[in-house]
Amino acid sequence: MRGQSNRLGILVGGGPAPGINSVIGAVTIEAVNSGLKVLGIYDGFEHLVAGRTDAVSGLSISDVSRIHAQGGSILRTSRVNPTRNPEDLHRTVETIKAMGISFLVTIGGDDTAFAASEVARAAGRALQIAHVPKTIDNDLPLPGGMPSFGFETARHVGTDVVLNLMEDSRTTNRWFFVVVMGRKTGHLALGICKAAGATLALIPEEIPEEPISLACVARVLEGAILKRRVMGQKHGLAVIAEGISEVLDPAELSNLPGVLVDRDSYGHISLSEIPLATILRREVQRRFAERGERMSIVDVTLGYDLRCAKPIPFDIDYTRTLGYGAVRFLLTEPKDHALRYGGLICLEHGHRRVMPFDELRDPATGRTRVRRVDRESEHYVVAREYMIKLEPGDLSDTQMRARLADAAGLSPEEIEDAFAPIVYSNTPKAPGRGFGRKRTTWANRSH
């Protein structure tokens, strides 16, 4: 057995995700059955950074035998970063040592993975860490296209909400702008849009260049509204990744009324402080108002509604396997020298794989690599095929351009001038990428 004691700690970092309790339960059961004493550490790294050894609770099998179907985290969570300075990192390591912990299971996303790797490196051989990847953003670079746990539950719950909103949209002839989580990627927004059959999704991966103006993003939504009108529909729903805020011009964002651009302990913009759905609704409504039209749009933000949902069977099954695998890894001497301090637990083709922490890092930034939506994938191409957005063919077709102009109360020339920048920007050779595509078969769309 590796390690100097029989104590194993568990902590949770970052935002909640469905399945956390299932990991805690699986880790505890396997650890206890393997002769280890399990300590649940409350509030992520928060108390470890402060040097506190009392914010823990012993966990037994009876404590966790029924928590796998519960949302939330019985150990709570926090975003405290133990790597902000050398003193915090040293204090964190020394506190863990003082608690007699030789094995640590961390549950979290890219920031917690980075923190875990730094703690493991600083602790040396005195501590082995197994990191279990969780995030509803699905942005960790897991092998074989496996999702990060919590994503499928969040997509499932989010899809049900969006289906209800789509029915409201159809019933009331209104548009809905729905913002969902996804800091740097659009996996959740795209997944919900595709599953629900929403009108369109807007994701950061489609932005041709950064930063982008608010006007440009609003034009994409405005164009979709006008195209739906031409197709005989006055209603629709756009699913928007919150990460659009991160690619907006920060100077423009800071100047918007009621917007606070703040950063968390990991240096990220606090997206929860930016009312993106409201900002986009007001901007699109302003554009229609300038043409003398009152446009009815409802803005909705999904996020906290999804993170603590009860996990669906997929995520329960998945997380129990990951939790068990984390303990088995910690108790087995690794053959790979790169895993001497620990690694990230994942599944590849049904088998446990442990990725060295160094393999997760972007060599350019030193941070955890981010998995972005692959716009060449069949998954994206199919999702994009069923969206309603203005395409290059819509502007080049004289009849369609005239209909769009009539729907907007503009001339065909004004339509061309207004929408050409977003339709033709970053138009690739292959279909399904960028704001616009080379497609002319608009007339056969009915949804």
**Estimated share of beta-strand residues:** 5-15%
Main sheet attributes: strand count, strand direction, barrel closure: 7 strands, mixed
Look up the CATH topology of the largest domain: Rossmann fold
The gross shape turns out to be elongated
Order of helices and strands: EHEHEHHEHEHEHEHEHHHEHHEEHHHHH
User: Low-confidence parts, pLDDT < 50 over ≥5 residues?
Assistant: 426-447
Q: Roughly how much helix do the residues carry, as a percent range?
A: 40-55%
Question: What Rg is obtained from the alpha carbons, in whole angstroms?
Answer: 24 Å
CATH architecture designation of the largest domain: 3-Layer(aba) Sandwich
Mean pLDDT equals 91
Sheet/helix structural class: alpha/beta
Note the total helix count: 18
N→C terminal distance: 60 Å
The count of β-strands is 11
Secondary structure layout:
Layout (H helix, E strand, L loop, with lengths): L6 E6 L7 H14 L3 E5 L4 H4 L6 E4 L1 H4 L21 H13 L2 E8 L1 H14 L4 E6 L17 H22 L2 E6 L6 H10 L3 E3 L11 H17 L5 E6 L2 H4 L2 H5 L21 H14 L7 E5 L2 H4 L5 H18 L11 E7 L2 E6 H4 L17 H8 L6 H5 L1 H11 L3 H13 L23
Parallel strand pairs: 1-2, 1-4, 4-5, 5-10, 6-8, 6-9, 7-8
Antiparallel strand pairs: 2-3, 10-11
Helix pairs in contact: 1-13, 4-5, 6-7, 7-15, 8-11, 8-17, 8-18, 17-18
Features:
single chain, 447 residues, alpha/beta, Rossmann fold, 2 domains, 7-stranded mixed beta sheet, 4-stranded parallel beta sheet, disordered C terminus
What this model shows, in words?
This protein is of the alpha/beta class and 447 residues long. The chain has two domains: 7-149 and 311-360, Rossmann fold (3-Layer(aba) Sandwich), CATH 3.40.50; 153-308, Rossmann fold (3-Layer(aba) Sandwich). The chain has helices at 20-33, 46-49, 61-64, 86-98, 110-123, 151-172, 187-196, 214-230, 244-247, 250-254, 276-289, 304-307, 313-330, 357-360, 378-385, 392-396, 398-408, 412-424, and strands at 7-12, 37-41, 56-59, 101-108, 128-133, 175-180, 200-202, 236-241, 297-301, 342-348, 351-356. The strands form two sheets. The protein has a seven-stranded mixed beta sheet, with helices on both faces. Strands 7-8-6-9 form a four-stranded parallel beta sheet, with helices on both faces. Helix 8 crosses helix 18 and helix 17 crosses helix 18. The longest helix is centred in the middle third of the chain and has 22 residues, at 151-172. The radius of gyration is 24 Å and the shape is elongated.
